[in-house]
Amino acid sequence: MTALWIPLRLKENQLKNATTWLRISYWVGATADGSVATVMFAQAILAQPSPLTHYVPETPYRYAMGLAGSLMLGWTILLLWADRKPVERRGILMITNVVIVGLMGSSLFAVSAGFMPPVAVVALFVLQAVLIVLFTSAYVASTRQGSARKREGARQIAAAEPLNSGGRIEMSDD
After folding, report:
1. How many separate domains does the chain show?
2. CA-CA distance, 111 to 134, in Å (whole number)?
3. Nearest partner of 139 among 105, 101, 89, judged by Cα
4. End-to-end distance of the chain based on CA atoms, in angstroms?
5. Would 77 be classed as within a structural domain?
6. 166 CB burial (10 A radius; 0-12, 13-18, 19+)
7. Could you tell me the sign of the dihedral formed by the alpha carbons of 63, 69, 72, 73, in that order?
8. What is this structure's pTM?
9. Contact at 8 Å (CB) between 86 and 61?
10. What average pLDDT does this structure show over 121-131?
11. Other C-beta atoms within 10 Å of 106: how many?
């Protein structure tokens, strides 16, 4: 009995560990997005200079930051929502990676256009790379554990429900 219990307990701990990494990923992402949304709203509403470019925003830029801040706030809420069912909503992390890559591309454009100094992008890229690694690692770990748990559940169901003599499962109308 103990020999059977130990592997099941280990699998349960691995799943809890994978879920913990998912939850950490959601909260780290939500914190990063919430911080950026705050900066964007400060630029849009208060006309605060950009901390990366020191650009003093004019009306079109303030409008764009208001739109971007709203989207960033929405993504913050999305990540917090995903935390409510971390395993079921883990795909949001991979979608978030696509958004991060898009933001990286926008930063490269800003540098190539002379709007942003290359030095300002280095720290930003490091943070974005860390987020991508964190999100991808949590997703992969939870997918492995989720798949293993599904296979184990299917084996248990198959063992509990013997097949009839013809090799088919019969359904009753009861």
Report:
1. 1
2. 26
3. 89
4. 35
5. yes
6. exposed
7. negative
8. 0.75
9. no
10. 95
11. 12
Distance CA(174)–CA(167), nearest Å, equals: 21
Residue 122: give the domain boundaries. Answer: 13-160
d(CA 117, CA 59): 22
CA pair distance 71, 138, nearest whole angstrom: 24
Tell me if 168 is assigned to some domain. Answer: no
pLDDT tens track for 67-100:
999 999 999 999 999 999 999 999 999 999 999 9
Q: Is 140:146 a contact under the CB 8 Å cutoff? A: no
Tokens of 96: 């978030």
Read off φ and ψ for residue 153, nearest 5 degrees. -65, -40
Domain-embedded: residue 5: no
Task: Look at residue 2 and tell me if it is in a domain.
Answer: no
Distance CA 41, CA 70 (A): 8
